[in-house]
Each structure stands twice: as structure tokens, then as C-alpha cells.
Amino acid sequence: MVLNYIWVSFFVIAFLVALGKSLFCGDAGIFTDLVNATFDASKGAFEISIGLTGILALWLGILSIGERSGLINALSRWLSPVFCRLFPDVPKGHPALGSIFMNLAANMLGLDNAATPMGLKAMKELQTLNPKKDTASNPMIMFLVINTSGLILIPVSIMMYRAQLGAAQPTDIFIPTLLTTSVSTLVGVSIVSLTQRINLFCKPILLLVGGIALFFAALVWLFVRVGREQMGTYSMSIANILLMSIILFFILWGLLKRVNVYDAFIEGAKEGFTTAIRIIPYLVAFLVGIAVFRASGALDLIVDGIGRGVALLGIDTSFVGALPTALMKSLSGSGANGLMIDTMQQYGADSFVGRMSCVARGASDTTFYILAVYFGSVGITKTRNAVACGLLADLSGIVAAIIISYIFLY
Fold first, then answer.
1. Does pLDDT of 144 surpass 80?
2. Would the pTM count as exceeding 0.85?
3. Distance CA 213, CA 72 (A)
């Protein structure tokens, strides 16, 4: 029901804003822009789905090898002490826990192409435990919010954009982004835990948080010691090596367990095509709504309103130029990337606004895209409080991006 209201709101607001521009500003072509946006977004949604087909086939095939060889079950048993606290409705040792771990690990390494198929696999396995097939279960909501909060160790793609635009230190947003995305993830998990009455103050969770904190500290130390210029190259190399290592490890483990890895791969890969087709309607619906909302200029009006309100309060407004990227991030990843690049081109890659837009882009993931793809893949239409929890995590990421950017980059 929440998604229904949000989706309708995109069109109603876009129409009213466009009507106002047409009547009072003489913008006769605004409705042409809206119609063109619907066609372009529909085409883009289909191309995204088709583009995902090969990636889905590859990774669902690899995961199929892991299932037949017992590797996923082994991961599930190993992760049970921690994940059974975060996902108490998932039985100990259930295969969904292994897929969840693979998805989160890929996300943290910035391996988007691998993360999405693994996430869809995890969502499918969680659906087998769901008593109400059209309604999001508690584990689904927790899993989705962790994904939308977008915890990532090294924002390689953002650093690459900065390098291409001539930034003197492309990696200077590394520590602020790491801190910001950690805040959004912590807030998202905490909110879901409160709504689901999950106790996070237990030994396994505290040990995990402590371990992650130590790892982050070591990562920051390595970042400073290695040098900012080399960190982007090293991080990309490490991520690619790990990716190929995972593929090889799954195949060799299957051979060790005497599994016909080729047949297992083909069987899993077949799911890639059907999954890609299944998510097309959901992607078309949301991407068209978002495209119309953006083309109408409604986002610009919101940003201008925030800027004027902040100015009236006597607060520094330097951050306002980065807000379009921060707000678009929840709606569209490609749109946020475009606005981030546009901000760096307009203000300069090394300006405060340019760097803050990069931090805001890396603060969390694309909430509505993940909702459409993940829930759409298993036919979930009643999202309960998933949207609210995801957007609150996004909001915390935006606030954290502003504060942390002022501390580190101003």
C-alpha cells in the first residue's frame, strides 16, 4: 500500500508542477519532456532487465554449484550465531543465510554485478519461509534495509569518476564515505530491530560490531599508509581478485564433492532468464514514475525550498548544491551518478560541494530500485514498513554526509 501511494504521488506531483510551469512560467514544452521521459524510462527499464540476464545466469549458476556441493549450507551453519540474531525467523543453518552473506560481502566490496543475483537468490529462499506470499516478512525487511543502507568498504566507482574529472586527490572522500555509510547501516539495522523487537545487545552481535570496527580501523590505517594515489588501484585489484577467487572456489569445491559442476551451473543459470523477465514490470513502474518526477523539475523545487529554509535559519548553505545527488540517490542510481558528475563539473571536483556530493552518493544505496527488483522478483506487493525503514536509513545517511563532510572536507 505504501508503494502504491508513493508511485501515484510521483505522477500527481509531476503533473501539478508541470502544469504550474506551463501556466505561470510559459514552459510550453514541459509536458513533451514528461512524455519523452516515460518512453525513455520504459526503454531503460527493459534494457536494465535484459542486461541483468547474463549476470543473473552467471551468478545463479555459481550459487547452484554451491548449493549442490553443500558449500552454502556450510556457510549458513558458520554464520548462524550472528545471523540468527538479526534474522530470528530464519531457522538455524537455512540456505538463505549463506546467500545473504554472499550478497552482503559482494555489496561491501562494491561488486554490484555479483551482489544483485545473490540478493535475488536470498530473497527467493526467504520467500520459501514466508507464510504470506504477497507480504514482506520480517527477515525480508531486515535484509532489504541492510541492502538499501549500502554499507561499502571502498567506493571504487566514485573514486574513478573523481579521477576522470581531474580531482587532485580522487580518494579523499574515502574516509568520510566509509563513516557515512556505516552510520546509515547502523541506523537502518537499529530501526528494523526496534520494530521487530530484536535484541542487538548480545555477545555475537557485539563481537561482530567490534570486529567490523577493528577492520575499518585497519582499512583506514592502510589507506593512510599506502597513499591516496595508490589506494584506488589496489582496491580495484583486490576486489577483482576476490571475485575470481570466489568463482574458482565454488567450482573447485564442487569438484571436490564430486558434483557435476557443469550441469549444476546450467540448472542454476536457467533461473537467470525467468528472474530477469519477472522484474521487468516492477522496474518499468518505478523508473517511469521517478523519471516523470525528475523531468517535471519537482526535485529542483524541493532543493530550492530546503536552501531557502536553511538560509532563513542563518545556517551555512554550502551543502545545498550537493542535495540533488543526495535526494536522487534513493530514487535512481544512474540519476544520482549523473547529478554527482554534473555537480563536480559545475563546482569543481575538488570543491566542497563536489566532494560532498560524492560522499552523499556513497552514503547508501538506491532504495526504490532495490525494492522494485528484490520484492518484485518474488511477487511481494505488501511491503509493510520496509519503505519507511529504508528511507529513514537514507535520511540518516544524508544528515551524516552533511555533518561528516563539514568535519573532514570543509
1. yes
2. no
3. 26
